[in-house]
Amino acid sequence: MLVYGSEAVLPVELAIRTHRTTTFQTAQNNQALREALDLLPLVRGDAYLREEIAKARMARFYNQRVRERPLAVGDLVLWKMEAIRKGASQGKLTPNWEGPYIVYEEIRPSTYRCRPSKELKFRERGIRRIYIVILCESR
């Protein structure tokens, strides 16, 4: 198959008469090609719909395993370094996380203001639970 459903004809087939070359009709072939071109937007639309359905199915499958963990004021969080644009500043030795930070205000659901924890270092966290967040507004 080459272009628009037409198949290539070998030079041998032109010299030796085959069924395909004897029954070929140019006008009928051109009409079929025009019809195929007219249907092309419909085929593209169907392909787009199938793609969107597949994306929605993958998102639904992924979101089945995601659990929302609401934070409260006073919780400790870590910031992912990539989210605050410090991801590769020192190469592969750059820490993955920064913090801990303390949530001190909830702006709206899933949006918090954080400040650095002065009394608690990362290695001295003890038994307290530390959550990992991707981005938190700092002030």
How are the secondary structure elements laid out?
Elements lengths: L10 H5 L3 H4 L3 H38 L12 E5 L16 E12 L2 E6 L13 E4 L3 E2 L1
Structural summary, described in words:
The protein is of the alpha/beta class and about 140 residues long. The protein folds into two domains: about 10-65; about 75-139, no CATH class. Helix content is about 35%, strand content about 20%. A hairpin with a 2-residue loop joins strand 2 and strand 3. The mean pLDDT is about 75.
Number of helices: 3
Kindly report the spatial arrangement of strands forming the biggest sheet: 4-1-2-3-5
Distance between the termini: 63 Å
Calculate Rg over CA atoms. Answer: 31 Å
Question: What does the main sheet amount to?
Answer: 5 strands, mixed
Question: In percent, how much strand structure appears in the residues?
Answer: 15-25%
Shape: elongated
Q: Would you list the SSEs in sequence order as H and E?
A: HHHEEEEE
Secondary-structure content class: alpha/beta
What is the tally of beta strands? 5
Overall structural domain count: 2
**Mean pLDDT metric:** 77
Q: What proportion of the residues is helical, as a percent range?
A: 25-40%
**Uncertain stretches:** none
Entry summary:
By secondary structure, the protein is α/β, with parallel strands linked by helices. Helix content is 34%, strand content 21%.
Which labels suit this protein?
alpha/beta; 3 helices
